[in-house]
Amino acid sequence: MSSIGTRLAVLSAMALFGGAANAASPLSFPRSNDPRTVADWLNARTDMPLEAVVVSGPDAVFAVLPGSAPPSAAQGRRARVLQEVIDPGFVATLGGRSGELDLDVDCVGRKVLRQAYDIYAGSNLGGAVEHLGAGKTWSQTEPDTPMDAVVTAVCQPESAPRPLMASLTVAVAAPPARAAPISEIELKPPPVAPKPAAKPKTTAPAPQPRLAMAAAPMLNLGEFSSLEAARAAWVGAAAGSSGKVQRIELASGGGAVKYRALVDGYADAPEAEAACAAVKARGGSCSLR
Question: Which of 107, 170, 201, 252 has the fewest CB atoms within 10 Å, measured from its CB?
């Protein structure tokens, strides 16, 4: 099994590279491989973006991100694939806890060519690293394998599986404490003072109109081609502000995945409007949502 497609499909042939197993504590693995537990573990232990995950379990999780360099061949697309082991028994098979793969993908032939593959002894690309280097030939992917899901994410992002999408929104800072949402408040008329018996009885004032309590809007900083750019926009918008929450949504369209950056956690509409105006004054893009 020398094919990189097969290696990533079953992840058993990595023992051929002689990677040393990491004797990590079982406590550093998810308690189970159900999506909610895996998502919580990834958020707590790694920098892997949940919206980029295309394979989750039973042995490992894979996320696909845009490549940092142009492809090596005209028919290829460069991608960066992150891998985290979630089953303690699989560490010895892989030879490590996490991996980073630079990959060229031929969308027409559904083939892949490895440019680099680094396997780390620790989670989140930490600890000792083994550099496996580049492959020499293109390899055909096999249907219904992790590598097949990776190729789909690169070539047809709108059709790629997203097993952890339910956990997309991640709070980076605790939002300000708010009371339970109130849809409306009824204003009651003031009490009517007693009138002398000789005077005619007066009618109580008509009730005041019902006022709706609207939630404070979020800041929409625009759509970006990469998760890193979306997060950078959020950091620039929320810099120096406490209690703000980062929200990043996928905005598919035109065959390409976009990342929409939102800032939440404002106490009221005037505060959100002032923050949006400040972003625009610094040359950024901002609208209220």
Answer: 201
Give residue-wise pLDDT tens across range 233-257.
Answer: 887 777 656 678 888 887 765 667 7
pLDDT of 216:
80
pLDDT value of residue 22: 37
Determine the topology of domain 219-288 in CATH: Alpha-Beta Plaits (3.30.70)
> Cβ of 152: how many Cβ atoms within 10 Å?
20
d(CA 244, CA 264): 6
Which two three-digit tokens encode residue 186?
């009824």
C-alpha span between 255 and 234 (Å, rounded): 25
Interatomic CA distance for residues 10 and 1, integer angstroms: 10
pLDDT band at 206 (very low <50, low <70, confident <90, very high): low
Indicate if the pLDDT at residue 147 is higher than 80.
yes
Strand pairing class (98-106; 126-131):
unpaired
**Contacts for 89 with CB less than 8 Å, ≥ 6 apart:** none
Map out the domains of the chain as residue ranges: 4-163, 219-288
